[in-house]
Amino acid sequence: MNKLEPSSTQALQPLERARLVSQALADAARRARFSTRSRRRLQGGGFQARAGDKIFRWAGILSFWLLVVAPTAAAGLYFGLIASDQYVSEFKFTVAGAEPAPLDSVGALSGIPAISIIQDTQIVVNHLSSRAAVEALENSVGLRARFSASVIDSVARFDAAKPIEKLVRYWTSMLNAAIKMPAGIVEVKIRAFSRDDALAMARAALAVSEQLINDLNDRMNRDALAAAERDVERAAQRLSTARLRLETLRNDEGLLDVQRTADGIARLLGESKSVLLKLQQEYATQAKAVSERAPQMQALQSRILATRAQIAELEAKVTGATAAGVSQATLSGLMTRFAELDLEKQIAERLYAGAIAALETARMTSERKKMYLNTFVEPTLPEEAAYPRRALNVFLTLLGSLGIWASLLGGAVLVRNNMA
Questions:
Q1: In the sheet where 185-192 sits, what is the strand order?
Q2: pTM
Q3: Per-residue pLDDT tens digits for 317-352
């Protein structure tokens, strides 16, 4: 066999060499499809690849401790041992008008309160988180002192040296006021670091809300009363002016009642014409038997002339022309002027009477409230701390840290695999 081995080896050596070369070319072509990094690893050898993997693996472990373990441990330490308990006091109320507000088209279909009630409710809710409310609460219960007590942990404690704007933001973070639709129920929750503080702040916040409603009622009543008083003053001034103008016209014309004067002139004019007619008839009758120069005929003639002059004078008062042709104020014109001023006086009297009635109504209404704050859940003393939710906060910290770490690690792997 030893003699045959050289010859067999020499006979198979070209075939084996060709097969090995073909296999090597196929492996090289397959490896050429990988990234430049893979080709460098093939050229550089296995030691370089193992060293890079080792550094990347240690970097992943270190980032896990920094981004996951450390924040979770810190959250567990803070929420488990340091964080102060927070107690919640709650109250509920609704805002209603003195009279049932009519439903609009939307409210009739959906059952939602009228827009005026919703606006009033929004005013109260927004006022609770305003600076005015914080200042009122500071004066009544001392928010700064309660939120900056030394027993509160340093993370949650408020710095009493900060300005009022910071206190407003801090108070807003401790306040939760929401409107439950469609009934329009306002639910207010206030957090504090002791049971008594939570109850005191809740009662003070409720008092601030009630004071706001009272202030709105007073403002509306004052505005309505002031408007009614202004209307009375204007109506009184108009009535006084109308009466003065009418009185001036009466004095200028020497007439107390133009209608009665007109009726009297018309009656006198009718009587004078009747007398004139009788005198003319008597004159015509006696003229047949008595001479015109007779004394009785002269007397009748004088009476007829006097009666005619009287009739002319009365007619002049009505027509506005005298015997000399000089025009003067006619009785019909005076009646028109008197009628206008009298009508103005009557309108002014009615307006004044209406303004007085409106003023009395406003005064009666001002004694009643237009809005009410109906509290059906009073603030109560909490018995158990509601915040912080320690296990939940630690779990959420763990989830967030894992999410950040996984995102960073996935991005690093993607960059590493595709790096030139």
A1: 175-180, 185-192, 87-97, 371-377
A2: 0.60
A3: 666 544 433 334 566 667 777 778 888 889 999 999
